[in-house]
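Hello forum,

I keep getting stuck at the same step: I have a sequence, I want structure tokens, and every attempt I make locally crashes halfway through. Rather than fight my setup again tonight, could one of you with a working pipeline run this one for me? It's a single chain of 92 residues.
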Amino acid sequence: MGAIIRPSSDLRNHYSEISKECHENRTPVIITVHGRGDTAIMGVQDYYQMKSELELLRTLAEAEDDVANGRIEPVQNTFDDIRKSLLERNHV
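Reply #2:
Ran it on my machine without issues. Output:
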């Protein structure tokens, strides 16, 4: 589903309609100033979801880079490190 494009005056004059569109239809709205895209508006739920997905993609890209550059260890070492860290936290 594409974005809806609206002039900046609609943000002031029709905010509730724009908000409803963002939340109910989960459609982003692009606000224009002098005919050019200026701001993107989306529901907060969609914002947080997008932010989480970007964080996951960054983590996966870092992991791929680690593998490509030989920065890997056996998985058992990772589990051992996690176990050790958890045990240290419980004893503090």
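Helices lie at 8-13, 15-24, 44-68, 75-90. If your local run keeps crashing, start a new thread with the error log.
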